[in-house]
């Protein structure tokens, strides 16, 4: 039995999309990413500065903060 090469595979995405890859664009995801980028740009994309801003916002907020206790680690015994 001879296997087909990658370029001859019937299930290749190129054969299913008429020669091009078509990605569906979700407008909510697009908007969320744009807002995230704008927010990060305020801090020159500095993660430490972003984290400090988030912590300050949490302290100012009147909302209840929920924190869950860490889950117990699961150990797997190896078979001999």
- Beta-strand content: under 5%
Give helix and strand order, one letter per element, not per position. HHH
Categorize the overall geometry: flat
Mean pLDDT: 83
Determine the N-to-C terminus distance.
39 Å
What does the largest sheet look like?
A: none
Low-confidence stretches: none
Instruction: Give the proportion of residues in helices.
Output: 40-55%
Give the class from helix and strand content and strand pairing.
mainly alpha
Strands, count: 0
Indicate the radius of gyration in whole angstroms.
Answer: 24 Å
Counting DSSP H or I runs of 4 or more residues, the number of helices is 3
How is this structure best described in words?
There is one protein chain. Helix content is 41%, strand content 0%. By secondary structure, it is an all-alpha fold. It has a domain at 24-55.
Could you outline the blueprint of secondary structure elements for this entry?
Elements: H1 13-16, H2 27-41, H3 47-60
Features:
single chain; 80 residues; mainly alpha; flat
How would you summarize what this structure contains?
By secondary structure, this protein is mainly α. It has three helices and no strands.
